[in-house]
Each structure stands twice: as C-alpha cells, then as structure tokens.
Design brief:
Elements: H1 4-13, H2 18-25, H3 29-36, H4 44-53, H5 59-66
Helix pairs in contact: 2-3
Length: about 70
Amino acid sequence: MVNANLLRGKMVSAGYTQKELASALGMSENTLSAKLNGSSSFTLKEVYAICSLLHISDFREKCEIFLPESSQ
C-alpha cells in the first residue's frame, strides 16, 4: 500500500493537483484516487512515471512513499 499522505504532499510541492497528475499519467482522476486510497495498486511503470513527474529521486523517499510497510 502506498503512503498517500506523503505522495499527496509531493504532488502539492511539485504543483500538481490530483486531476493534473492523473491526466499526466494517462488515467482518470477516479483511478488515481482508487490507487491513493489503496483500493488498487500502482504498476511499476506508474511508479516510475510518478517519480519522474514529481522529481522523486531519493531511493529512501521512494521506499517511504511506495513501500511504507518495509520502512517501519
């Protein structure tokens, strides 16, 4: 499960709304919302795209956002 709060914070820092990020990823806002809420999972391709769009390059930060269970 994704750490949605951290990811939303990165979205805001990078100047993206949920709708804008969804569009940039080629998905609907509802799909992105479901992924943020844990109803469905991000694909590896989507994770790479999100990291690129939001300028997330630090490995530890990626783990905190996308693999929160492993960082505890």
